[in-house]
Specification:
The structure holds 2 protein chains of 2 kinds. Chain A is an alpha/beta fold. Chain A has 6 helices and 13 strands. The longest helix of chain A is centred in the last third of the chain and has 12 residues, at 197-208. Helix content of chain B is 34%, strand content 28%. The longest helix of chain B has 11 residues, at 46-56. The chains are: A alpha/beta, B alpha/beta. The interface between A and B is large, with 47 and 44 residues.
Amino acid sequence: MSEAKKVVVVDYGVGNLHSVVKALRHQGGDVTISSDPGEIAKAERLVLPGVGAFGDGMRELTERHLVEPLRAFVTTGRPFLGICLGMQLLLDESEEFGTRAGLGIVPGNVVAIPPKPGLKIPHIGWNEIAPPPGKSFAGSVLAEVPERTRMYFVHSFAAVPHEEYRLADTFYGGFRISAAIRKDNVTGCQFHPEKSGPVGLRVVSHFLG
Amino acid sequence: MEAAVREGVSEAAQVSLPRVIARLDIKSPNLVKGIQLEGLRVIGDPAEHSLRYYHEGADELLYIDIVASLYERNSLADLVEKTAAEIFVPLTVGGGIRSIDDIYKLLRAGADKVALNTAVVRKPELITEASRIFGSQCIVLSVEAKRRADGTWEAYTDNGREKTGLDAITWIRRAVDMGAGEILLTSVDNEGRQKGFDLDLVRAVGPVVHVPVIACGGAGSPEDVLAGFTAGADAVAIASLFHYKKITIPALKGRLAEGGIKVRK
């Protein structure tokens, strides 16, 4: 008999977490949606979703007293997945609407995708992801994703982590954009695995383990 | 942000991520298709078609409630909930969405984006309010544009039946300034005729806004779709070609790739 794959999805009032929840359940996850620090602390796996502004996200986490519980969870070594805004919040700070502090879990910052004539912002659509030179996806949630697979992105700001934490990159408008980051048990996906079709669901499965 | 160089090849050219969106016009409980001057034809079960298009590789799905204006509301929440459980690509819903509460309900049911026309023509501030609450990426401006004698386009509502008096291009610019994250651009003249998009319209809108533009209405052949992308559409929403099984999604994508449009396989 296989064990239920328990996962807590953090509800902090930002963005639509229902798609993430559906994808986790579809792949066999036993999902609890929670904004309770106690439940978060005990989670076997934790997902931080989110779409929207960095400042709003940090404000909501702060008001719900979730900042320290999230940082504490990370130190347990249990699996943590940040998606889209949830990935960006992992960094030290963002320049969105003035400098805002993030969770500071992955060194680096968040910047706007620079405007360029003819370049549509947000970065919306299916874009190829590949590991940085010299690296591979092996051993990560992307282990079953072939290099240069297209995933679904929708964002206007992008994380710029310290190089060693880059797991996957994508390219848009001549810019190298961080598609996924990883530091020990913490993974962040800028793209939406829950919106990236069957291959995205494989990422979800892999995270559930 | 650093300029990208991958394996010695400059990535400067990558400015477009073309999307093929399967559009379903729904008159509950049926999937239907409007034919110019003929009315509506029933195609079949919306959920069955939607799931099939997802599995065949549609990049996104679009559900339009086409009798919503009759009832002044959108009736698609159940269909959204039912299909969202099995579909893992972005889903946009439009038709009769009137308020923040309507938007909330559809997103809660599983939609990722909502397309707004009548409600925001009546009250443009709704765009600002909705984009602030849900984020610009959720808010798609749906524009039905009809040619005027002077070569400009007027915006219409109610499936091209009600005039607004608004110049379509001016209205689109304003809506984007107010927070609309994408434009769903339908040509009233070309919709349902399967003779191609209004390429002049696509060419007029694309460069004028920094947000993606989805060309909708009129594609009758793979060449029409290719022409839409070449004219500057970031995405195309296709109904007839798929519903009448004139071409499968994989075959269409193959033709687009041959034509230099780098769609997701």
